[in-house]
Design a protein that fits this description.
The complex is a heterodimer of chains A (370) and B (604). Chain A is α/β, with parallel strands linked by helices and 370 residues long. Chain A folds into 2 domains: 2-167 and 335-367, Medium-chain alcohol dehydrogenases, catalytic domain (Quinone Oxidoreductase, Chain A, domain 1); 173-312, 3-Layer(aba) Sandwich (Rossmann fold), CATH 3.40.50.720. Helices cover 26% and strands 26% of the residues of chain A. Chain A is built from 11 helices and 18 strands. In chain A, helix 8 (266-275) links the parallel strand 14 (254-259) and strand 15. In chain B, strands 17-16-15-18-19-20 form a 6-stranded mixed sheet, with helices on both faces. Chain B has a 5-stranded parallel sheet with strand order 2-5-8-1-9. In chain B, helix 8 (172-183) packs across helix 10 (216-233) and helix 18 (368-386) packs across helix 21. The radius of gyration of chain B is 29 Å and the shape is globular. Chain B starts with 8 loop residues before the first helix and ends with a helix. Classes of the chains: A alpha/beta (370), B alpha/beta (604).
Chain lengths: 370, 604
């Protein structure tokens, strides 16, 4: 069949919305009609080269929600008509990582940047050429074929244009604080960078019972948004945040620091490292260029037993945590509507990313034509 | 003092054209938005004479229309020459502009005099005859929509005969221009002072702790005082103490702190002055710059956190949960987003209470389309049931004769009684007074945990009924309470009953019952209304679980009626005891159908 999709043809190129060929689903795969797709910074990282795909062109988008239109042979978890949120990490359920509670590190993730399906072949084609899909999904397409391991069924009454955020940004930010960071009742948490990820770290930390949540962002609108969703303090710079953290902990330092900046650099991580207490934890969730290295004072790492941890998908489990987030939305605890600053059509995708880079958005969402 | 009108070009054009087209007008806007200035300027431009009337509760028809000179009547009987024209007749006869300020403070009976004047351009005055208005006669009225104290709603019959122009606060640049123009008459003022004065005045309108803020007049006063104080104290730059002194004097009497907010107007003004202080954000705390602004001091609790309590706002229910709770769910909502109105009506006929309870639950569905459809349907259904309440026409104030030495003289009755002696002895004089019959009603809805699910629909019906009664000139408000009190329908602003019902059906019982705090809030709400009788209708099980003894909180409530939702004897006894304290009544209400007759008995 034909579908319209936003593709990247190379680093630093704009998104192109083109019509392309889509194969029917093979074994273990489903055809999805996407209703909405969040505009995550990781797709922008594809464009800038911070997160280089194995090959161009590639269909973007990995934070989607849609409806199953067709199932391939052997699909057991999904049926036609099911509403799903796509997980940017597939989870097979039985590899070593899935079996030990690290399904965010499932071996199927090996092909995330190749963009092919688990069998190594491609469903998107443009001018006779195989085209990959971001995170094996390609949610910037009206239709896509994905592995059933990448799609999590949700209740039909959950609005899909909000649910799409649960595919990446919400559990990543939430889990960075609650799971990777292990925020506990009474903690003081500093969150660096209030975008689509950081704002959800704020929500997670607040729900986990943090006593002080200090949101750091140079953009005033984002600081206010953080306060709306649970931050107790906000700061426009790391220095100001460090002063607040020391003040509210009587000089001890923050318990946890979550780095969710759009592009991570040594300076931010070093600031976070210096703001946490002894035996405190820095969680690094934001991405940086693949060549980039962090520098950390090794003596203090040793003497103060500090921890610096990476976090993928907020150490969350797609099949357990995506449905849980749906329920948290229902109960009014998890805010999704408030995260969506603006919606765009597929054709407005470049404008949407420019808004993100200009700091105008917490999250932009593409609404596909139905 | 003449000051040019700043801005308002569009409004001025509409006003001028409306007048030349023979329309009567009401100008609506908060104080200090330039209503009078604008009117004076238009009158001058069109060379019209203006007859001025200040609206207030004491403006009787006789004072507006005019009356026979009592001594002439007693000497010579009723004769046209003995009639002294009031401002209305003066304006009508001379074809002038009649400018009536504070229209919504005028008693309804007086306003009704205007109806034929507006519609036909004539008025029939008893014992004088028909008076026709000159073709140039126009009525321009002004009113302040936010005026919560002492105002009534202008009846449809009057407002239907006038055009309406709304004036809002002007933007900051225009207000600065106004302040500069006015203050310049008294000598030069600094830009800093104008900037600060206007900034403070504008901030008072937005501040959450203030019920109403200041007009631009506050800014004018502050700038004049600040400039004068600077001269007196020999200061060239802005000094915080001087600025505060001038701000306190200019604003503390103009702003009004929200009911229930425990701080003084001065402390709010101080906060605003500091926030508006010119310069970089870093230097914004003049005189107390030692601590970082947010780190020290009390911990701020962001609004987002209050929502996080279980049962808080925004909790929705899945279709699975709804289906488990209501046997008829599948029939009424067979698929996502669907609400079968026919199926619902069938259920409503069969078991109205179960249907209503389900409708309230559907109003909190996660399913967006279903939720929206349920809220629309709820507004319709509950308002319809609420219409079942019978209200006698009352609430309009009437002038009634009385033998008192004050008030307007009732010539007819005095004549009948007069023995012919001059001067007439005081016991033969009959005067006219307003009779007390205006009521203000506050519906107080218990939203505590003890209320459960079904009472939500009862509350919605009661609210609809009470608000619909407001159309018969009762001033009404609706408050919901558990541990704290939330205003759903403040007495001053009128919202359609449908809106209030929509908000109420989303309400879910949670938390403790603090009856005393709720009754105090109702008393405070009623205190702001122009009423002769202040009535509270309490919808609750009356079993207080927190706060003071409710009987200590009845100040300012003339009568308390109770719709008791509790089913136990204890609950009924508490309701009866509470109602008895003020001579009110109580009724148990378990079913929807019991609400309209109960309210008819209480308010009808």
């Amino acid at each position: 069949m034909k579908t319209r999709a936003a593709v990247l043809r190379g680093t630093e190129r704009d998104w192109d919305v083109v019509e392309m060929e889509l194969d029917p689903p093979k074994a273990g795969e489903v055809l999805l009609r996407f209703v909405a797709s969040g505009m995550c910074h990781s797709d922008e990282h594809l464009r800038t080269g911070d997160l280089p795909p194995f090959k161009f062109p590639i269909v973007g988008g990995h934070e989607g929600a849609g409806i199953v239109e067709e199932v391939g042979p052997g699909v057991t978890r999904l049926a036609k008509g099911d509403h799903v949120v796509t997980s940017f990490l597939p989870s097979c359920g039985h590899c070593r990582w899935c079996a030990t509670g690290h399904s965010n590190l499932c071996d199927l993730g090996a092909n995330l940047l190749a963009g092919c399906l688990p069998d190594g072949t491609y469903r998107f084609h443009l001018d006779g050429e195989d085209v990959g899909a971001m995170c094996m999904l390609g949610t910037f397409s009206n239709h896509a074929v994905v592995s059933e391991n990448s799609a999590v069924k949700i209740a039909e009454d959950m609005p899909l244009d909000k649910a799409c955020l649960i595919g990446c940004g919400v559990p990543t930010g939430f889990g960075s604080a609650v799971k990777t960071g292990g925020v506990e009742v009474g903690d003081t948490v500093v969150i660096y960078g209030i975008g689509g990820i950081g704002i959800n770290s704020v929500q997670g930390a607040a729900l986990a019972g943090a006593r002080n949540i200090i949101a750091v962002d140079p953009v005033a609108f984002k600081r206010e948004k953080a306060e709306e969703l649970g931050a107790t303090h906000s700061a426009s710079s790391a220095e100001e945040a460090a002063a607040i953290a020391l003040d509210v902990t009587q000089g001890v330092g923050a318990d946890k620091a979550i780095v969710t900046a759009g592009v991570v650099n040594s300076e931010i991580v070093l600031n976070a490292f210096n703001t946490i207490r002894k035996a405190g934890t820095v969680v690094v969730t934001g991405l940086a260029n693949m060549e980039h290295n962090l520098e950390i004072p090794s003596s203090f790492l040793t003497l103060f037993e500090k921890t610096v941890k990476g976090s993928l998908f907020g150490s969350s489990d797609p099949f357990a945590d995506i449905p849980k987030m749906v329920e948290l939305y229902r109960s009014g605890d998890l805010k999704l509507d408030e995260l969506i600053t603006k919606t765009y059509t597929l054709d407005q995708i470049n404008e949407g990313y420019q808004d993100m880079l200009d700091g105008k958005n917490i999250r932009g969402v593409i609404l596909h034509d139905s | 003092m003449t000051v040019p009108v700043v801005g308002l070009r569009r409004e001025r054009e509409v006003l001028t054209v409306a007048l030349t087209q023979g329309r009567h007008l009401v100008i609506e806007g908060p104080p200090g938005t330039g209503k009078s200035t604008l009117l004076r300027e238009i009158a001058r431009e069109t060379s019209r004479e203006v007859v001025f009337v200040e609206g207030n509760a004491e403006l009787t028809p006789a004072r507006l229309v005019g009356q026979h000179d009592p001594s002439l009547v007693l000497h010579e009987g009723y004769r046209p020459e003995g009639f002294v024209d009031g401002p209305l007749l003066v304006a009508m006869r001379s074809g002038a502009l009649l400018y009536v300020e504070e229209l919504n403070r005028i008693p309804e009976e007086t306003l009704n005099v205007l109806i034929t004047v507006l519609a036909e351009g004539e008025i029939t005055v008893p014992r004088l005859g028909l008076v026709r208005a000159q073709p140039q006669f126009r009525l321009i009225a002004a009113m302040n929509p936010f005026d919560a104290v002492g105002t009534a709603r202008v009846s449809q019959a009057v407002s239907d005969r006038m055009c309406r122009v709304v004036l809002g606060y002007q933007d900051a640049a225009a207000e600065r221009q106004i302040v500069r123009a006015v203050t310049a008459l008294d000598g030069p003022v600094s830009d800093d002072a104008v900037e600060l004065g206007v900034g403070v005045a504008r901030a008072t309108r937005e501040h959450r702790d203030l019920r109403h803020g200041s007009s631009v007049r506050g800014a004018i006063d502050m700038v004049l005082l600040l400039t004068g104080l600077q001269r007196l104290r020999g200061e060239r730059d802005l000094v915080r103490e001087t600025a505060l002194d001038s701000a306190y004097a200019a604003f503390s009497g103009r702003v009004r702190v929200q009911d229930g907010v425990d701080r003084t107007a001065e402390s709010v003004i101080e906060e605003i002055v500091d926030a508006q202080w010119p310069g970089e954000p870093g230097e914004r705390n003049p005189g107390k710059a030692q601590s970082p602004p947010d780190a020290a001091g009390g911990r701020r609790r962001p609004a987002g956190r209050d929502d996080r309590s279980p049962g808080g706002k925004g909790r929705t229910q899945s279709r699975d949960t709804l289906a488990r709770r209501h046997a008829a769910f599948e029939a009424v909502s067979p698929e996502v987003g669907a609400l079968d109105a026919d199926a619902f009506e069938a259920l409503m006929r069969e078991d109205p209470d179960a249907a209503a309870e389900m409708l309230c639950d559907l109003s909190t569905a996660t399913d967006r389309e279903l939720q929206a459809a349920a809220r629309r349907l709820a507004a319709r259904v509950f308002v319809q049931i609420g219409r079942g309440v019978q209200h006698r026409a009352r609430g309009t104030r009437r002038l009634a004769p009385a033998k008192r030495s004050d008030g307007d003289l009732d010539l007819d009755r005095t004549f009948d009684r007069w023995s012919g002696h001059w001067p007439p002895p005081s016991d033969e004089l009959v005067t006219r007074h307003w009779t007390a019959s205006r009521r203000a009603v506050c519906l107080l809805v218990d939203a505590s945990g003890s209320m459960g699910g079904r009472p939500v629909s009862v509350a919605a019906v009661a609210a609809a009924a009470v608000l619909l009664a407001a159309e018969a000139h009762l001033a009404t408000s609706v408050l919901a309470f558990s541990g704290g009190v939330a205003t759903i329908q403040p007495g001053a602003a009128a919202r359609p009953a449908e809106d209030v019902v929509t908000e109420l059906v989303a309400l879910r019982g949670h938390g403790v019952t603090d009856l005393a705090a709720a009754l105090r809030a109702a008393g405070a709400q009623l205190a702001g209304m122009n009423a002769d009788e202040r009535v509270v209708v309490l919808l609750s099980d009356c079993l207080s679980t927190s706060g003071d003894d409710p009987v200590t909180a009845l100040a300012g409530i003339d009568r308390l009626h109770v719709l008791c939702t509790g089913v136990t004897e204890e609950s009924h006894a508490a309701a009866a005891a509470l109602a008895r304290r003020t001579g009110g009544t109580w009724r148990p209400v378990e079913r929807l159908a019991e609400v309209p007759p109960a309210l008819t008995a209480m308010l009808g």
